Amino acid sequence: MQKLKQLAKESYSVKMADSALFKFPDLIDKWQYDYGVVFKGLEYIYENTKDEKYFEYIKKNIDYFVKEDGSIKKYSLDEYNIDHINNGKAVLFLYRKTGEEKYKKAAQLLREQLKTHPRTVEGGFWHKKIYPHQMWLDGIYMGSPFYAEYATLIGKDEAEEIFDDVVRQVILCAKHTKDPVTGLHYHGWDESRQQKWANKITGCSPNFWGRALGWFAMAIVDVLDFLPQNHQSRDTILAIFRQLMDAILKYQDPETGVWYQVVNYIGKNGNYPEASASCMFVYALAKGIHNGYLSSKYLDALERAYEGIIYRFLEKDHNGHLSLNGVCMVAGLGGNPYRDGSYEYYISEPIKTDDLKGVGAFLKASAWVERLF
Fold first, then answer.
1. Which residues belong to the active site?
2. Domain boundaries, the chain
3. Mind listing the pLDDT tens digit for each residue in 105-116?
4. Beta carbons within 8 Å of 254's beta carbon, 6+ residues apart
5. pLDDT of 35-71, one tens digit each?
6. How far is the C-alpha of 198 from the C-alpha of 191, rounded, in Å?
7. What molecular functions are annotated in GO for this chain (predicted)?
8. For the stretch 186-203, what's the b/e string if a residue is b when 16 or more beta carbons lie within 10 angstroms of its beta carbon?
């Protein structure tokens, strides 16, 4: 605990946030989900520090996309891509802070996508229209926390229905992707069993990708922020979260304290410690402990993990700016060229420095580690 306290006092969240603002003054290329991960991290740091520059940064970048009438530049509803919901969390943050009508309208537009988004037979959102009949762990993070927060802020008249739908997404994804042996969850599930990557019996993809598990862990701990205490399925969601964290901790590298790209193959040839997943697990642990979902017995694992991230992945340049190394650039299933979900596939994707998915996850993790003290 002493090491964790010392690291928290270093305020790595602020150091990385200031580095990100310097390196990425504008996040406006596309309406893309990784921006939303950074914005969420900065939202927490703004709450911690009350420094207006973080609020202004989020607002400036979201205002590039959100017009006065609530329409969103570079966003297409009928693309039916669940990733495109993630930036809606920043839109809701700005609506909470400013009360401006354009943010409410933009959030309502994203809610409209979810009304007609294609679903599995049981009601789970497809990951994308171009990936039919599939649920991916990533998609729960992209859609469900926004959806739940929307119910508390804007969709109060339909809140009960939304909360039930949010819970449905988490439970269905957990049920269909969980491996009974390890307790880990496979990256994706194809209800049609048509994809070459899908197991013909279970429909699951063949491997446990670190960041997919990270997305799922963050999704659940974030949904719990908004799901009413008396919701009939809250205990079920809490149980899924605790089981997931227990399974993940079994694969924490005893040497480095972090997690590998393919989490259950520590030290296997070609596998490597991966920063974004490690940061996501730290975030889920820190927030879980802070909010009472996890007991203090998880603090040791959190300390080893956060220390591992700081010493293994962080680098400071001559200007004092921080970089985050060791982030898998991207990984998916299917598509063209075809991604088969094999071990060889996951270790072949490029590794980047300062990939925004990793930077955003580090901001979120550090902000919540610091809230513990």
1. 138
2. 1-371
3. 999 999 999 999
4. none
5. 999 999 999 999 999 999 999 999 999 999 999 999 9
6. 9
7. hydrolase activity
8. bbbbbbeeebebbeeeeb
